[in-house]
Amino acid sequence: MVMEEFWNASTEEQKQGFVEHEDQLQCLLCGQEVEQGLIYPVEGLFYDAKRYMRFHIEQEHGSVFDYLSHLDKKLTGLSDHQVALLRLFYQGLSDAQVQRETGIGSTSTIRNHRFVLKEKERQARVFLVMMDLLKEKDQRLGARTASPARARVNEQSPLKVDEAEQIIVKHFPQGSVQGRLEKLPRKQSHKRIVLQEIVKRFEPNRFYTEKEVNEVLKDVYEDHVTLRRYLIDFSLLEREADGSRYWLAKPQPQGKEDTLMNRKQELKMLYKETKTQAGVYQVKNVQNGKVLVESTRNLKTMNGKKFMMQQGNHPNPLLQKELKEYGVDAFRFEVLEVLEPKDEPYFDLADALEKLENKWLEQVQPYGERGYNQEKKRK
Q1: Cβ distance 314 to 323 under 8 Å?
Q2: Can you give 31-86 as a three-state secondary structure string?
Q3: Alpha-carbon gap, residue 70 to 73, rounded angstroms
Q4: Using CA atoms, how far apart are residues 152 and 143, in angstroms rounded to an integer?
Q5: Hey, how many other C-beta atoms are within 10 angstroms of the C-beta on 111?
Q6: What are the phi and psi torsion angles at 142 (to 5°)?
């Protein structure tokens, strides 16, 4: 799914590593989404959505270039040798420096490799132009061969399906809003539309006990507790402070100020939901028991590492070697410990995370025959 998004993105979006979807930004490398309009606190600084996404890419993927350079050669069309050279060129090394780093031939040899890569770039540009022209011709032929009668029907009665209706159909696959909900939408605007349909199952001017509310919602969705909480958070159901009774909220007029208030409420909720957790995790080879211990500011980005492994790639060379030998099914991801942030003015997240990682490295000792980590040099 992530690579599909990547291929469908524009060149500029691919280079920056993320794409904009309505009110969200999505990382093209691991799929993580952040909401526009929110402010994200990072180590005492406050980032808007775009700056936070750039920070995420830098912290979790190094750079878009680094991520792409670790993709399988079937996707890049490059040999391991060419990728290694490109990485050195990307670091800004001169031909002489690259020659000393690799020990390949002479400076003129490296210069020739640069020429070959530039030639490959020119070939790629020609190929892209040819494919674009082919697509345009296919589109023109398709337009000319379309049935005139059908064209007239389309002109007279354009098919316009309401977006809200599309969302309902998508999340109630049984074809009826009285059926079961397959899954809750991730986007807050879509979630509101679905919840507005669900709340219609409650009668106006009637009080419900919590048990009665649960009975109604159990027929809708397996996680009825979460569903009940969302109905309250979106002000569609109201309740007594002690939870003794529930009732339908009165519909509010939707002027500009009301709509803006709803949007702010949704953004606040989303921020709570997407609050990241830093921590330490391990990747374990269940075939031989070897592990890789790593820390991350956001444990959700383990999905990006899992995806890379599914593509046959991992940035750790020792693990990558055994990935090719054992296959992706031999590896399991496991969270070892979530970092508990302290509500202190001088709390240093990076320092705390490093200490937590060192604790687990000391405990697990994932070195040599026991793992894929390289022992850190003592200062």
Answers
A1: yes
A2: CCEEECCCCEEECCEEECHHHHHHHHHHHHHCCHHHHHHCCCHHHHCCCHHHHHHH
A3: 9
A4: 13
A5: 14
A6: -65, -40
Q: What is the DSSP letter of 296?
A: E
- Amino acid at position 19, single letter: V
Q: Give residue 262's pLDDT.
A: 55
Element (DSSP H or E) covering residue 335: strand 331-338
Tokens 């670091």, located at residue: 91
Grouping H, G, I as helix, E, B as strand and the rest as coil, residue 188 is helix
Task: Give the integer Cα–Cα distance in Å for 365 and 349.
Answer: 23
Number of neighbouring beta carbons within 10 Å of residue 295: 22
Residues 279/339, Cβ–Cβ less than 8 Å: yes
What is the model's pLDDT at position 220? 86
Tokens linked to 34 = 């952040």
Q: Which residues pair with 299 in a beta bridge?
A: none
* Residue 184 β-bridge partners: none
Which residue, among 245, 195, 189, has the nearest Cα to 221 in the 3D structure? 195
pLDDT value of residue 360 = 96
d(CA 205, CA 186): 31
Low pLDDT (below 50) residues in the chain: 1, 146-161, 256-257, 260-261, 263, 267, 271-272
Tokens of 131: 């494919």
Q: What is the pLDDT of residue 173?
A: 65
Listed in sequence order, the residues at least 6 apart from 323 whose beta carbon sits closer than 8 Å to its beta carbon are 309, 312, 313, 314, 331
pTM of the predicted structure, to 2 decimals: 0.42
pLDDT given for residue 28 in this prediction: 87
Q: What is the pLDDT of residue 260?
A: 47
Question: Are the C-beta atoms of 258 and 335 separated by less than 8 Å?
Answer: no
- Which residue in 186, 267, 279 sits closest to 234, CA to CA? 267
Q: How far apart are CA 26 and CA 22, in angstroms?
A: 10
Nearest CA to 285 out of 221, 218, 333, 234 is that of 333
